[in-house]
Specification:
This protein has 4 helices and 3 strands; from the N terminus they run βααββαα. With 97 residues, the protein is α+β, with helices and mostly antiparallel strands.
């Protein structure tokens, strides 16, 4: 889980922008873990100074993966991309049941 040091929402926004690659990786890894363990929600990070948790719920897993896969490809995280696509397939199949 990522920790953010922001003291207010504007600082959190700036920190998220500067750590975007790290956040994308953490998001994808967290969602893959959730898929493998049948979790309904994952906590990607927190900004304790302003009492904010960054989470992703199961109904947003596919969209979040699709948004973050291109950045993972840019970082050459190919194995992670394969796992993410497998997770999307698994989630889509559950939706069909």
């Amino acid at each position: 889980m990522l920790k953010f040091n922001a003291q207010n929402i504007d600082e959190l926004h700036q920190e998220c922008m500067s750590r975007s690659n790290e956040i994308s990786l953490a998001t994808v890894k967290s969602i893959i873990f959730a898929c493998e363990n049948n979790l309904e929600e994952v906590n990607v990070g927190s900004a304790e100074n302003i009492n904010i948790n960054i989470t992703c719920k199961r109904d947003s897993f596919i969209q979040s993966l699709e948004i973050n896969i291109p950045r993972c490809l840019e970082m050459e995280e190919y194995e992670l991309v394969i796992k993410a696509k497998d997770c999307i397939d698994k989630l889509n199949n559950k939706d069909d049941e």
